[in-house]
Specification:
This protein has two domains: 3-128 and 321-358, Nucleotidyltransferase, domain 5 (2-Layer Sandwich), CATH 3.30.420; 140-317, ATPase, nucleotide binding domain (Nucleotidyltransferase, domain 5), CATH 3.30.420. It is an alpha/beta fold. The chain contains ten helices and ten strands. Helix 3 links the parallel strand 4 (80-86) and strand 5. Helix 7 packs antiparallel against helix 8. It has helices at residues 38-42, 49-71, 90-107, 116-122, 171-181, 189-198, 220-232, 254-282, 297-310, 327-338; strands at 7-12, 17-24, 29-36, 80-86, 111-115, 140-145, 150-155, 160-165, 286-290, 313-316. It has a five-stranded mixed sheet with strand order 3-2-1-4-5, sandwiched between helices. The two termini are 24 Å apart. Bound molecules: 5'-O-[(R)-(carboxyoxy)(hydroxy)phosphoryl]adenosine and zinc ion (ZN). Zinc ion binds at residues 116, 120, 146, 291, 324.
């Protein structure tokens, strides 16, 4: 198979985005489509698994047709199929995984089950504008920060090692929970980002430490501390359900904008503190930063600055690829195809948990 003839179809349905992408053999996007279900889940203040699965069933075939039309391709041009097999919501995963297996079987092309976190971790090597992907070094560190994950991994040719994980909430969850208490709706990370731009961080929250000296993350204390500060501001923290916004962003008082700036600072300060600790022990040269929280303004400013001060080449996921997408799934699949690591292939099952460090 000549690499310029390769066309990998990527499918992503692990949570609340239905996504389809077509990637060429150089890792360039022929198309990448994402259909968000945010509207369907918003009034529940979080993702409802049954609604997610049903929406994927409805959206996936339509999105596939649109993606093929975008690329001026037909199914017969697809040379391999990659679909997310986990971690995620099992009912949601099953939709993309079954579709992917069925297509691969029908087309007699290889099927690659992809780990969603591996997809995120590799996404910073993609060119967000459709150009070929950047070369992936044999060894690099990856910070994956999303609504469900806050992890640091070390990627090597033959293995993936976990260097840190969150012991409670994920960083994105911390953004979302604080936003929800402040009445900013769900998912609240982008709203906190916008309010923080209007605020001034002046009262830092402490960076938590573990007694055992572990570089693991912890964000649950921040939620409680932020709650206290909301009460100080005379705001009654909104209950978690229903999650519709009760405060218009333009009406947010200065004190609340300042608090959101403090919250954002606290999250980024902890990320940097842990990265420094890990870098002192591990000395990596390249760090990828990916996942929904990699869209955050302060994250995109401070982590590259940290890298420059330490001689670490920080690669941020392109803006359009921080959230869930199928390009990263197709790309992880392409890399596995090129190295003959297809995992369980058609035998793969949907996994709610699938630790990345168990992959080869
Ligand atoms: O990767 P993603 O789309 O889905 C998961 O796999 O979780 O990440 C979504 C998370 C949410 O928690 C959302 O609030 C957060 O990413 N997020 C942000 C920003 N944009 C998205 N957090 C802070 N600042 C942002 N600009
Ligand atoms: Zn994700």
């Amino acid at each position: 198979m000549k690499s310029d003839e390769t066309l990998v179809l990527g499918l992503e349905t692990s949570c609340d985005e239905t996504a389809v992408a077509l990637l060429d053999g150089a890792g360039g996007a022929r198309t990448s489509r994402v259909s968000s279900q945010e509207e369907a889940h918003r009034r529940f203040g979080g993702v409802v698994p049954e609604i997610a699965a049903r929406a994927h069933l409805e959206n996936l075939p339509l999105l596939l047709d649109v993606a093929l039309a975008d690329a001026g391709a037909s199914l017969a041009d697809v040379t391999a199929v990659a679909a997310t097999a986990g971690p995620g919501l099992v009912g949601a995963l099953l939709v993309g995984l079954s579709e992917g297996k069925g297509l691969a079987l029908g087309l007699s092309v290889p099927f690659v089950p992809v780990n969603h976190i591996e997809g995120h971790a590799l996404s910073p090597f993609l060119d967000g504008a459709g150009g070929p992907a950047f070369p992936v070094p044999e060894t690099f560190a990856a910070l994956v920060v999303s609504g469900g994950h806050t992890h640091v991994f070390r990627f090597e040719a033959e293995r993936i090692e976990r260097l840190a994980r969150t012991r409670d909430d994920a960083a994105g969850e911390a953004f979302d929970k604080v936003a929800k208490m402040a009445g900013l709706g769900y998912p609240g990370g982008p709203a906190v980002d916008r309010l923080a731009r209007r605020g001034r961080a002046a009262r830092p929250f402490p960076v938590p430490h573990f007694k055992d000296g572990s570089p693991d993350f912890s964000f649950s204390g921040l939620k409680t501390a932020a709650r206290e500060r909301l009460l100080e501001l005379g705001r009654v923290p909104a209950p978690g359900f229903p999650g519709g916004p009760s405060l218009r962003e333009e009406d947010a008082p200065q004190g609340l904008c300042d608090l959101m700036a403090d919250v954002e600072e606290a999250i980024v300060a902890q990320l940097l503190h842990r990265l420094s600790r890990i870098h002192e022990a591990e000395l990596f040269e390249v760090l990828t930063v990916s996942g929904g929280v990699a869209a955050n303004t302060l994250v995109r400013e401070r982590i590259p600055a940290w890298g420059r001060s330490r001689g670490v080449d920080v690669r941020l996921a392109p803006r359009g690829l921080t959230g869930d997408n199928a390009m990263m799934i197709a790309f992880a699949g392409l890399r596995r195809l090129l190295t003959g690591r297809l995992g369980e292939g058609l035998g793969a099952v949907a996994r709610s948990r699938w630790p990345l460090e168990t992959l080869r």
